[in-house]
Amino acid sequence: QLQLQESGPGLVKPSETLSLTCTVSGGSISSSSYYWGWIRQPPGKGLEWIGSIYYSGSTYYNPSLKSRVTISVDTSKNQFSLKLSSVTAADTAVYYCARLVFGVVIHFDYWGQGTLVTVSS
Amino acid sequence: EIVLTQSPGTLSLSPGERATLSCRASQSVSSSYLAWYQQKPGQAPRLLIYGASSRATGIPDRFSGSGSGTDFTLTISRLEPEDFAVYYCQQYGSSPPVTFGPGTKVDIK
Questions:
Q1: Parallel, antiparallel, or unpaired: how do β-strands A18-25 and B54-55 relate?
Q2: Alpha-carbon distances, residue A12 vs A41, A64, A65, B84 (angstroms)
Q3: What is the pLDDT along chain A (121 residues), one digit of tens a residue?
Q4: DSSP string for A26-54
Q5: Which chain B residues contact residue A46 at CB under 8 A?
Q6: Which of residues 99 through 118 in chain A touch B, CB cutoff 8 A?
Q7: At a CB cut-off of 8 Å and minimum separation 6, what does A109 contact?
Q8: Is-contact A29 A72, C-beta < 8 A?
Q9: A66 — phi, psi (to 5°)?
Q10: Contact yes or no for A20/A114 (Cβ under 8 A)
Q11: Cα–Cα distance for residue pair A49/A43, rounded to 1 Å
Q12: Which parts of B1-109 are beta strand (E)?
């Protein structure tokens, strides 16, 4: 059974960089049919896609966040990571990592449990 | 940008009733790229329906999806107590390639 687990600081100061890692277990991040993505959800609000990465390193980002986002992959550790720079209180959210099935159909089939990141001084 | 609109915002129903949730897109969406998720408080979203009408593994057959183009529907034939949750539709398409609808909350009447 595939599992994804987010890890990283739960508190980040304004103007600093938020860094999270997603560890994938029970399957290989190098599978050819999948991208890997980050999605966030501010408290009490809806879901916002941040970006996705292929195991080769190919990325695509939400244009609304693109200037501040970097997603990278480490296939040797079966992990992928998110960096979001110059954070403000508006970036406070639960951050999820998920697997994106990418082929004839496209959807997120496995999700991590999510991690709350609060931006505050 | 393709904007997804979900209606109603909240649906108040009793167990055993039928729930019909709507997802409308501002532009045509490929049926292959339309999915539905269920989210309960404190939990991650769970995939229910992909390709507009295919149930994900382990999803009961009381959940069904339909639609094409700009209009999609999630139907729960008979609500069970565990079905009271928030439901999101999601599409893959043009920039940004992935968008979610704002959600429909199904609560107990």
A1: unpaired
A2: 16, 21, 17, 34
A3: 999 999 999 999 999 999 999 999 999 999 999 999 999 999 999 999 999 999 999 999 999 999 999 999 999 999 999 999 999 999 999 999 999 999 898 999 999 999 999 999 9
A4: SS-TT-TTEEEEEEEE-TTS--EEEEEE-
A5: 88, 100-103
A6: 100-101, 104-109, 111-114
A7: A98, A99, A101, B47, B50, B56
A8: no
A9: -55, -35
A10: no
A11: 15
A12: 4-7, 10-13, 19-29, 34-39, 46-50, 54-55, 63-76, 86-92, 98-100, 104-108
Burial class of residue A19 in the structure, from the number of CB atoms within 10 Å of its CB (0-12 exposed, 13-18 middle, 19+ buried): middle
Of B62, B98, B9, give the one whose Cα is nearest residue A61: B98
Q: Which tokens hold the place of A66?
A: 């693109």
The answer to whether the Cβ–Cβ distance between B51 and A108 falls below 8 Å is no
- CA gap A56, A81 in Å, rounded: 14
Cα–Cα separations (whole angstroms), residue A121 to A13, A84, A90, B39, B47: 5, 17, 13, 31, 36
Q: How far lies A24's CA from each of A8, A99, B65, B85, in Å?
A: 15, 9, 30, 27
- Name the amino acid, one letter, at B76: I
Q: What's the farthest any 2 CA atoms get from each other in chain B?
A: 40
Q: Collect all residues from B whose CB is shorter than 8 A from any CB in A.
A: 32-33, 35, 37, 43-47, 50-51, 54, 56, 88, 90, 92, 95-103
